[in-house]
Design brief:
With about 400 residues, this protein is an alpha/beta fold. The chain has two domains: about 110 residues, Urease, subunit C, domain 1 (Roll), CATH 2.30.40; about 280 residues, Metal-dependent hydrolases (TIM Barrel, Alpha-Beta Barrel), CATH 3.20.20.140. The chain is built from 13 helices and 15 strands. Strands 1, 2, 3, 4, 5, 13, 14 and 15 form an eight-stranded mixed β-sheet that branches. α5 runs parallel beside α6 and α7 packs parallel to α8.
Length: about 400
């Protein structure tokens, strides 16, 4: 059995012309089962061809000739999933990966940059999390770039997108570019000083057309909604998830339980509105954020009590000045009453269900993709440990190793 330092393993990957999975054995691991909320101690995890080949509860040595990393009792958990990002560059995506996010759902990117990044990552040409791409989001005033990409719909520029047939045309254009889901704005945004986040933008009929076109393509619809009227219209229309949901009522949340609609509350980014720096640094937004933060916390706590499926997300771009990570959202979820186990599921198994990829990612299981993180302590007891991810493995590729590790010499 060959033992080599992890940094040597990393170096061998970085010089390759494309990013390829590597075989790896993680020895002396405490393996976190996010489904049952239990830990298997002193186990061995075998990674082969980008997948988890075996989890040996007896702590065996693993196959001969494969690099071994001694975790010395550290905890192995699934890679995290961020359900709401705005990341359109490889540099920003790599920053997300370094925090332990191995899958992310892009909620809007100009010129279908997220679709392109998805294809680069799948082909092994970009060291980023796995992308699920939305392209542009449907709103009454579409982004300028949308009409540059779809000049055939230029007649809608200026006049706005409203009514069932214009909405249908835009939805079909998005589907034609291979998006993984459709994103729409059921209400105005909160992150601009001149908007009213409660204001409804589309009615149930218009959103139903989006759902119809998405369903025909085998994908779902996610609706940005702060206000209750817009959120209720989106739920009634059949969207798969509500993003934010700040002012949702108990009636709307109960509808979500009945219909199986997911909630992505993005509490941490609302807190970002209230502090200097980060993604938002504006006096009007600071005032708005101080009002919105207790409201979104109250709404999310009610949603949890009612049984709404909650998924973790940051709503950040992971830019060089961003101060919010997915760990901060999980801390917020614990604050509103979720257990550490439930919060971790919100970033793993429940997120994978929302994305429709729970048959291959979201938990540590033989045959699943080798997306995993290594932590100093048990995240089921201390969710804050996710702020300091020691090791990230994505599709079997060792991305980073941090901290003071035992370094067995090459034998």
């Amino acid at each position: 059995m060959i033992r080599v330092p992890v940094l040597a393993v990393i170096a061998s990957v970085l010089v390759a012309p494309s990013i390829a999975a590597q075989d790896l054995v993680l020895h002396n691991a405490n393996v976190v089962d996010v489904v049952t909320g239990t830990v298997t101690s002193d186990a061995t995890v075998v990674v082969r061809d980008g997948s988890i080949a075996a989890i040996d509860a007896d702590g065996g040595d693993g196959p001969a000739g494969v690099p071994v990393v001694d975790l010395a009792g550290r905890y192995v958990a699934p890679g995290l999933m961020d359900a709401h990002v705005h990341v359109g560059s490889s540099a920003d995506a790599y920053r997300a990966l370094l925090t332990g996010v191995t899958t992310m759902r892009s909620m809007g990117a100009s010129h279908y940059a997220d679709v392109g990044m998805r294809e680069l990552q799948r082909a092994g040409h970009a060291e980023t999390p796995e992308y699920l791409a939305a392209g542009y989001h449907i709103r009454p005033q579409m982004a300028e770039g949308f009409f540059q990409d779809h000049p055939e719909l230029g007649g809608l520029d200026g006049g706005g997108v409203g009514g069932t047939e214009p909405v249908r045309s835009v939805a079909r254009a998005l589907v034609s570019r291979g998006v993984d889901f459709i994103k729409t704005n059921a209400t105005e945004r909160a992150g601009l000083p001149n908007t009213d986040p409660r204001k409804q933008l589309f009615d149930e009929m218009e959103i139903s057309v989006m759902v119809e076109e998405a369903t025909r393509a085998g994908i779902g619809v996610s609706a940005h909604a702060h206000g209750d009227a817009g959120g209720r219209a989106a739920v009634a229309a059949g969207v798969r998830s509500i993003e934010h949901g700040t002012y949702l009522s108990e009636t709307t949340l109960s509808m979500m339980v009945d219909r199986g609609t997911y909630l992505v509350p993005t509490i941490a980014i609302v807190r970002d509105l209230t502090i200097a720096g980060g993604d938002y640094d504006n006096a009007v937004l600071n005032i708005r954020g101080r009002h919105m933060l207790p409201r979104v916390q109250e709404m999310a706590a009610m949603a949890h009590r009612l049984g709404v499926k909650i998924v973790a997300a940051t709503d950040t771009g992971y830019g060089p000045n961003s101060t919010t990570t997915l760990a901060h959202e999980l801390l917020e979820l614990v604050e509103i009453g979720m257990s550490a186990h439930e919060a971790l599921q919100a970033a793993t198994t429940t997120a994978a269900e929302l994305f429709g990829i729970d048959d291959r990612v979201g938990r540590l299981e033989e045959g699943f993709e080798a997306d995993l993180i290594v932590l100093e302590r048990n995240p089921l007891e201390d969710i804050g440990v996710l702020q300091d991810v020691l090791m990230v493995v994505s599709d079997g590729d060792v991305i980073v190793q941090r901290g003071d590790w035992p370094g067995p010499p090459v034998s």
